[in-house]
Amino acid sequence: MLKAQIYDHGQFKFMDAGQTISILLSSTALRLNEAGIESARTEASWMLMHATGRSKMDLIMRPDEKMTTDQAEHLQILLSRRLEGVPIQYVLGVADFYGRSFTVSPDVLIPRPETEELVESVLRLDAEVLGGGVIDLGTGSGCIPITIACERPGALCVGVDVSAAALRVARSNASQLGANVQWVEADMCDPALQEMLGRTFSVLISNPPYIPDEEAASLQPEVRNHEPGLALFSGSDPLHFYRALCEQAPRIVRSGGYVLVEIHADAGLAVLHLFEQAGWIDCALQQDLSGRDRIIRARMP
Ligand code: GLN
Questions:
Q1: Angstrom distance (rounded) from CA 93 to CA 277
Q2: How far apart are the first and last CA of the chain?
Q3: Could you give the C-alpha distances from 59 to 13, 26, 53, in angstroms and in order?
Q4: Ligand 1 center to residue 232 CA distance, Å?
């Protein structure tokens, strides 16, 4: 019945202004569902909220309200981009991370739940340790240092990224969320990094690019075709950035300080070994909530 309505005139015409919220919600969800998108109804309601500026409660309480032409057109654009395979976070320009809403664009990786667990591990460190300075190498959207700055306002937080475009996104997130973070445009592998930073830190964090190039073909197309390769791929050596971190960290992290890095689920033991062989102490491998190797934590002697 609904389908018949939608495909009226043999064309996909449901975005006509004057349709009610409830019809547009159902027809958007149906289109997403037909395209094989799993959380079709949820995504449809996000798109309607975005296109109309209404809250979720508004959508539920006033399903018979009508959309304006501009809103219907906006919804049509969002839906078309999503149907082209663009991740919902890029379509809407926002992603949730640790209970906050971050702006995202294709210049930055979409923050992942695993990375929330990395942040959780950092937040478990003593306030005194965090007060000694926290640096995030390869910060992207800035979700890691911004979250730490919001949760621990006393901590001095610095985010580093090689991409000026990513840092623009990070800066805008920090100002939207009122987080006091300093930003440095630099390559995490640059031997002059410590001089550029001009100080040392008690915690170094990184979620570096860790997907080997040869895994590109097996990634979901949404990830492979839309997220920044610069933030995803490690090149032919899966340990490339961890080797660089092992080189850099002793210059950047103070004695007794910590390194916490996110890793590829298959690289746990290899990265653990790397840190142990470089003389780090208390090296530990942590699993994420789905039981996969995800974080290496080590301490500077
Ligand atoms: N966790 C991301 C993914 O699975 C990869 C992030 C990274 O390479 N650092 O797609």
A1: 42
A2: 69
A3: 21, 12, 10
A4: 6
Q: Say whether pLDDT at 60 is over 60.
A: yes
Residue nearest to atom 6 of ligand 1 (CA): 232
C-alpha 59/C-alpha 45 separation (Å) is: 8
What letter represents residue 76's amino acid?
A: Q
CB neighbourhood size of 214 (10 A): 10
- Burial label for 149, CB within 10 Å (0-12, 13-18, 19+), is buried
Give ligand 1 pocket residues (Cβ under 6 A). 109, 112, 114, 207-211, 223, 232
Ligand 1 center from residue 24 Cα (angstroms): 34
Q: Which atom of ligand 1 is nearest to the CA of 210?
A: 8
Q: Could you tell which of 232, 237, 290 is best to mutate to test the pocket of ligand 1, judged by most ligand atoms within 8 Å of the CB?
A: 232
**Do residues 72 and 19 touch, judged by C-beta distance below 8 A?**
yes
Q: Read off the pLDDT of residues 88-135 as tens digits, 9 standing for 90 and up.
A: 999 999 999 999 999 999 999 999 999 999 999 999 999 999 999 999
Hey, where are the domains in the chain? 3-84, 94-299
Most distant CA atoms of the chain, gap in Å: 72
Q: Which CATH architecture has domain 3-84?
A: Orthogonal Bundle (1.10)
CATH architecture under which domain 94-299 falls: 3-Layer(aba) Sandwich (3.40)
Could you read off the pLDDT of 172-203 as tens digits, one per residue?
Answer: 999 999 999 999 999 999 999 999 999 999 99
Apex CA 117: angle with CA 114 and CA 120, to 5°?
A: 160
Q: What's the gap in Å between 107 CA and the centre of ligand 1?
A: 14
> What distance in angstroms lies between residue 144's CA and the mean position of ligand 1's atoms?
14
Give residue 18's pLDDT. 75
At 16, the pLDDT band (50, 70, 90 cuts) reads low
